[in-house]
UniProtKB/TrEMBL annotation:
It comes from the Bacteria. Keywords: DNA-binding, Transcription, Transcription regulation. The keyword Transport does not apply. This is Putative transcription regulator protein. The keyword Transcription applies. Residues 225-323 form the HTH araC/xylS-type domain. SUPFAM superfamilies: Homeodomain-like. Pfam families: HTH_18 (PF12833). GO terms for molecular function: DNA-binding transcription factor activity; sequence-specific DNA binding.
Length: 334
């Protein structure tokens, strides 16, 4: 079995050829020779592309991708690994975990570049819809992009003008997504494919409109940002809510409520995410053992760290590409 790639415009499209707004599986780094399955890129109209895919990665799926200016809506039925958004200097700036059952939205008004890293043997199955910026504006959703920042409740990762969030998944959205995937894979008709895609875009826009940035009292925002900076600057410290509240001059209740309102997650959830992201960076740099890295980001138990890391990124710490340290001798990382 090999990778079957189909790229075409829908029958009703006015495109002479498909303008790919996102990564293409035809690129060598996107589709290694040993990758198997099916990947279809369908041009709906100028500024609107559908991709559906069901592949099994045949070797470490690591490569650079580039996206044209667009808003992307993605749903993964099967997935593992992660991707990174690159900053203006080409450095990895923000990680996006690939998790099944999630619906991601990415705003990249000036385009974006990044890397993806998918473990060997991973099944990748899902859809990707890319909407050009002009079409997104004509759909009346341009105002939604103005509020997308690190404080937005849907925020997952961002760098520069590129923003990634995780959408709530109402039943109608999931139903449209599954119907689109099934229609594309079974080739039930091009009109159906376009209708499904428009349904998904419309439902996603409605879901985004229902979620407004939390109203955190202005007087608390400076202290809450200070709490975030304190944690990030000293990940190894055994932070407590009491200590953070005391450092910032807030009550514990205002700290917990305000932090969730401003950043969309609880204090400890944010701290754990930053610890694991830093650990991932250190593992990729090499030179330290798993145990040393666990300690450096605040975990006294290497086995506990390994379980959290595997749950978050879908692979054991010692399997991270670039890792050159000595794996810790405990069963969880064997």
């Amino acid at each position: 079995m090999s990778l079957r790639v189909e790229q075409r415009a829908l029958a009703q499209s006015d495109q002479q050829e498909v303008v790919v707004l996102g990564p293409s599986p035809a690129e060598e780094t996107r589709a290694p020779p040993t990758t198997e399955g099916a990947y279809k890129i369908l041009g709906v109209r100028n500024g609107l592309t559908i991709s559906v895919f069901d592949i099994v990665v045949g070797e470490d799926f690591v490569g650079r991708y580039q996206t044209e200016p667009c808003v992307a809506i993605d749903c993964l039925f099967h997935a593992s690994g992660q991707g990174w958004i690159l900053d203006a200097g080409g450095a990895r700036a923000a990680a996006v975990p690939y998790r099944p059952g999630r619906v991601y939205v990415m705003s990249a008004p000036k385009g974006a570049t990044g890397y993806y890293d998918v473990p060997l043997g991973t099944r990748f199955r899902g859809i990707d819809i890319r909407v050009g910026m002009d079409l997104w504006e004509r759909l009346g959703a341009g105002d939604l992009l103005d509020a997308l920042n690190g404080e937005h409740p849907l925020h997952s990762a961002s760098s520069g003008e590129t923003w990634v969030g995780v959408l709530p998944v109402p039943p109608e959205l999931l139903g449209h997504i599954k119907a689109l995937f099934d229609s594309a894979m079974s080739e039930r008709g091009d009109l159906v494919l376009e209708a499904r895609a428009l349904d998904i875009i419309s439902t996603a826009i409605a879901a985004m409109r229902k979620v407004q940035p939390a109203a955190t009292p202005p007087r608390d925002r400076r202290q809450l940002r200070q709490v975030r900076e304190l944690m990030v600057s000293d990940l190894a410290r055994d932070w407590t809510i009491e200590a953070l509240a005391r450092e910032a001059g807030l009550s514990q209740k205002r700290l917990k409520t305000g932090f969730r309102g401003l950043y969309g997650v609880a204090v400890y959830a944010y701290l754990q995410e930053q610890r694991l992201l830093e650990a991932r960076r250190l593992l990729g740099a090499g030179g330290m053992s798993v145990t040393q890295i666990a300690l450096s980001v605040g975990y006294n138990s290497a086995s506990h760290f390994s379980r959290l890391f595997a749950r978050r990124f879908g692979l054991q710490p010692s399997r991270v590409p670039g890792f050159a340290g000595r794996p810790a001798s405990f069963e969880a990382d064997d």
